[in-house]
Design goal:
mainly alpha, Arc Repressor Mutant, subunit A, Four Helix Bundle (Hemerythrin (Met), subunit A), 11 helices, 3 strands, 68% helix, 4% strand, DNA-binding
Length: 233
Amino acid sequence: MKGDKKTQDDIVYEHIFDAILEQRLAPGTKLSEESLGEIFGVSRTIIRRALARLGYEQVVVLRPNRGAVVASPTLDEARQIVFARRVVEKAVTELVCENADANQIEQLKQMVRDEQACFARGDLGAGIRLSGEFHLLLAEIARNPPLLSFQRSLVSLCSLIIAQFEKGETKSHCSYDEHFELIDALAQRDKEKSVSLMMHHLDHIEDKLNLGDQTEENDLKAIFSNVLSRKSS
């Protein structure tokens, strides 16, 4: 989120968005307005505004008289989301080839180095979040606000899909080796190679998905313990 001034609902929104990217909030998790209000120390009105933004991005489902839950895409919806992600990523990649300057290329490289460091020290959640933020940074560099808006929704939805449909027991993440390869192609302004690498990268992510389901109960106070610890210190 750009700018120095953030509203309270901006802050709540960002914490929930990050928790979804980090796969700390699983599909189907109930988002109690009362619990979230206590965690963040804000009114229900502010919580509702943050949830409404997430609802607009389709990562939260707002149920009249039953409260909000983290979206739990069906298999058919997951396929539609993956298809949409391919369309958006292709356009973003082409625009980054045209627009990226040397400073932005270095910014991308530093983000991937940070991602690599997170996985190396075992901070899986932060590494997964940075993997998603890498794709959001690409969309920013593309300088097309509608594509960036779509990408924010699709990246977070893909994180939910991975949590819900991933094969095996370990959480997957974007390969930072593939990210570095892509950055090199973007720096050379090789549009054809860049798009090919991005599609291969998405193939790699999609290949890890299966028909599995996840119905894990989540404790909101445990998920947002970092917020509570800062409030008590």
